[in-house]
Amino acid sequence: MIRHFLAMLWKGSAVPAAVLFLAGTAAAAEGAGDWRPTYDLIMRWVNFLILAFIIVKYARRPLKNFLADKKTDLEQEIQSLEQEKERIAKEVDQAKKTLEESEGTLSALKARILKEGEAERERVIQEARAQAQVMLESARQRIENQLRRAKGGVVSELVDSAVALALQRLPQMLTPEDHQAWIDRFTTSASQ
């Protein structure tokens, strides 16, 4: 019943609504026999109706404007949040693309580094082989030089031993005629 009363009040027929409402209330209060509670109830409702009328008459437009402004503010805030959401989504997509590109670049860089590392390894191996060859050749030459010196030392020792042996034996084996023959030969070869 109150809902019906408020609907009628809102549409502008406040008097019939008040009569209907008060009639129902007054009928309920008749059985009590005391008029004061009924009077208080009626006055409360009259005050309520006066207050409702003043609110509807004078506060309706500012209240509507306030609510319309709040609605506009909320719509703008929702729109700005949607735009922010779209901007962030675009940034996330861009970050994903950048990450994928980075992964591709990283894979290419890794492959290039591996290829360069393999080439460097081959170059180092070739240099090591060349250096080992040079070292082997140098060692071979040192060995040959040591062998030559050793052979030369052995030959020179043999010659020295032979000379020493010859000096030791020759004086016993040479006779004075052999001495004279050597001297004659020497003088002939010197005079020529």
Textual characterization of the structure:
The chain has helices at 2-11, 14-29, 35-173, 176-191. It has 192 residues and is an all-alpha fold. The termini are far apart.
Task: Spell out the blueprint of helices and strands.
Elements: H1 2-11, H2 14-29, H3 35-173, H4 176-191
Helix pairs in contact: 1-2, 2-3
What distinguishing features does this structure have?
single chain, 192 residues, mainly alpha, 94% helix
What's this model, at a glance?
It contains four helices and no strands. It has helices spanning 2-11, 14-29, 35-173, 176-191.
Radius of gyration, in Å, reads: 67 Å
Low-confidence stretches: none
Please report the number of helical segments. 4
Strand content range: under 5%
What sequence of helices (H) and strands (E) makes up the elements? Answer: HHHH
Query: What is the straight-line distance between the termini?
Result: 172 Å
Tell me the overall shape.
rod-shaped
Number-wise, the strands total: 0
Helix content: over 70%
